[in-house]
Amino acid sequence: MAFAITQTCCNDATCVSVCPVNCIHPTPEERAFGSTEMLYIDPKTCIDCGACTDACPVDAVFPVDSLPVDQREYADINAAYFERAGEEAPEADDLGPNFHAWSEPTFERVLPSDFGPLRVAIVGTGPAGMYAAEDLLLHTRADVTLIDRLPVAGGLVRHGVAPDHPATKRVGDAFARFHTHPRVRLHLGLEVGGDITAEELAAHHDAVIYAVGAATDRRLGIPGEERTGNVSATSVVAWYNGHPEVAPDAVALSAERVVVIGNGNVALDVARILVSDPETLAGTTIAPHALAELRRSKVREVVLLGRGDPEHAAYTRSELLALRHVPGVDLIVDDHDPRVGTTIDAAGPKEKAALLRGVARQPVDWSLPPGAAERRRIVFRFLSAPLEICGDEDIRGVRVTGADGEVEISAGMALRAIGYRGVPPAGLPFDDAAGTVPHEGGRVTGRAGTYVVGWIKRGPSGGIGANRACAAETVGTLLADVVAGVLPAPTGHPKSFHRLARRRRRH
Ligand SMILES: Cc1cc2nc3c(=O)[nH]c(=O)nc-3n(C[C@H](O)[C@H](O)[C@H](O)COP(=O)(O)OP(=O)(O)OC[C@H]3O[C@@H](n4cnc5c(N)ncnc54)[C@H](O)[C@@H]3O)c2cc1C
Ligand code: SF4
Ligand code: SF4
To answer: How far apart, in whole angstroms, are the C-alpha atoms of residue 151 and residue 153?
Structure first.
């Protein structure tokens, strides 16, 4: 029968260590780890023991014969990975700009008994901070101070992951177990660089790990960005997830057509939420104000604009597959450029573009409103770049390139979803071009005792599980520094820090 890994897999490799027959790949020791969209189970070796299902924090593993209808393709997707086993694994350089090549470890992992008590502060309670905390708590005797500027822990698991991905959100429960660990002090509502300074934090700890993520979004740099109705996916995502700093009325869904600029997974998340039947979202973690607005929504069509062809779209296969199963929603490919259809038709069965075979292809008259069809729709427009957000004060449309020349897609809302971007953490060096803090193996360049992990370290790409290997690298570097005796000694007492934190935090 065999088991199969499905859509919600976040690559954290927890299942690998529990599989008695080593049939889940790529493992963290294999070169392809970190470059595949998910892990896969070899159906020829799997002995159906179910250990991986119990271990998986996001309910991504099922016996093949009990796969839900909308996940059946995953039996083939898992098997197909092993059919390619003889092929040469890709070089890191071939994997595109979003791939982070992990440096080879330059240290031997030290044992907890190699050093005395250690006080480590971790700034940020998203996946990267929590994997670092878990590593320190399980493998050393360190005391950990966990800090987050928000009154709720979880980072993007809480305020990024879409509410209709409840299994993925459950990874937050696994992280939350460490909030009450006897060696952890958690301070929420405390901003480092605002409520307390980086120097105050460093003075009370042997080491500080910054896991502050990538809090803002990239700009398009085209005319009209200031027009009302041009918003960032960052704020829409935060709005529907009930982020405490985004006003309940921040998003108004009064437009019939929305143009989403970008076609990565965040773009697909936003498109899916905007066209889904709101009743399917009731009962999820969606913010009540967002659900109410979605119930009033006039949105009938979301256009996903991407510069590349269908083979080089930024979304992952699993997110596109999920989109094909949203009830009441049609997918359409805008046939404006013959190369789009050619790429889809010529794609081999394992190529990304092949997933759009069977999706209707038609030219779209963008000067017309979407129409009053019963069903809502998502239109993919590939090989097309935005030139201008048009209108007066409000948006009238988005002028874009294409094989049909420059056209204006009439729309009342434009949403840029072209990536997140790191914000310089107070007091740390910052690479403005990359939006990250420069580091060597996680150690901030030129700052003894200061480390980075997660999106602020390697840029805003990679799912939740990618932060686990990232945290292992950073914690490994930190422990090597402890053993080498290069950490500056703290001058303040732990108790005085916790008193300071309680006084300063916002309630
Ligand atoms: C919209 C969206 C949807 C996603 N969906 C998925 C998904 O379905 N599956 C998946 O595998 N991955 C998903 N990801 C990717 C995943 O969320 C990231 O890999 C992960 O959250 C990055 O972790 P991080 O800890 O570096 O940053 P974050 O999760 O952003 O955590 C950073 C934390 O630091 C805190 N912080 C920032 N500055 C300060 C400061 N000065 N003082 C104190 N605290 C501070 C923040 O409040 C935040 O809690 C998604 C990402 C986005 C943007
Ligand atoms: S069911 Fe058992 S043998 Fe099969 S992949 Fe999972 S852990 Fe491995
Ligand atoms: S989420 Fe983790 S444990 Fe679950 S299938 Fe993916 S790699 Fe395995």
So the answer is: 7
Architecture of domain 3-94 in this structure: 2-Layer Sandwich (3.30)
Condensed to tens digits (0 to 9), the pLDDT of residues 347-380 reads 988 889 999 999 999 999 999 888 766 789 999 9
Q: Indicate the top mutation candidate among 15, 39, 41, 61 to test ligand 2's pocket, ranked by most ligand atoms within 8 A of CB.
A: 41
Please count the CA atoms within 13 angstroms of the CA of 386 that sit on its side-chain side.
29
**Whole-number Å distance between alpha carbons of 493 and 503:** 16
pLDDT at 92 over 50: no
The CA R_g of the chain, rounded to the nearest whole Å, is: 24
Place of tokens 């960052």: 234
Average confidence score pLDDT of the chain: 90
pLDDT recorded at residue 100: 37
Q: What is the pLDDT of residues 454-463, one digit of tens each?
A: 999 999 988 8
Closest ligand 1 atom to 420 CA: 53
Task: Return the number of other C-beta atoms located less than 10 Å from residue 436's C-beta.
Answer: 20
The answer on pLDDT for 97 being more than 80 is no
Query: What burial class does residue 355 get, using C-beta atoms within 10 Å of its C-beta: 0-12 exposed, 13-18 middle, 19+ buried?
Result: buried
Q: Is the CB of 7 under 6 A from ligand 3?
A: no
Query: Which CATH architecture is the domain 112-215+422-504 placed in?
Result: 3-Layer(aba) Sandwich (3.40)
Q: Is the pLDDT at 384 greater than 90, yes or no? A: yes
In CATH, the architecture of 220-419 is 3-Layer(bba) Sandwich (3.50)
Residue 424, classified by CB atoms within 10 Å of its CB into exposed (0-12), middle (13-18) or buried (19+), is middle
